[in-house]
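anyone seen this seq b4? input:
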Amino acid sequence: MNQMIISAATEGAEPTNPLIPNVWEMGVVLAGFAVLFYIVVKFVVPMFEKTFAERAEAIEGGIAKAEKAQAEASAALEEYKQQLTDARAEANRIREEARAEGAQILADLKEKAAAESARITAHAHAQIESERQAAVVSLRSEVGTLATTLASRIVGESLSDDARAARVVDRFLADLENQNAGAAK
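predicted toks r here
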């Protein structure tokens, strides 16, 4: 049946060249292409352009944000480095002040110790001198008593007179000191 329809259609028609396109087909295809082209240009391309512009803007904004963040991070890093340098300098300054203060305290303590030592030494010398003086006075009285007793026995008379006894004792001690001074030279 199909063959009959095809053969009936081709019987009355002229033979067609397959290389030459049919004008009506070309017109319909061109009209369809024009409508499709108009729809694409009018609706699709602007949407693509809009999406492309939004993406480009988003990318550029992201790059700008990233550059800004990078700049802020660099500034923060520099500030941190500066603060670290300042903190190290401050620590060194405090350490040097502590060393100087420690040296000053040590010098003060040495000075106080030397002053205390000098005071104790002076006090000890004064105490020794007072004890020596007390010993000399005590020895003088004992030596005087012994000398008076000895002189009384040698002389054979009593030297109970205080004035005479004091003169005898003083003379005896002066002679004794002269002998000691001569022996020391």
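The first helix runs from residue 2 to 11. DSSP finds three helices and no strands in the chain. kinda curious what u guys think
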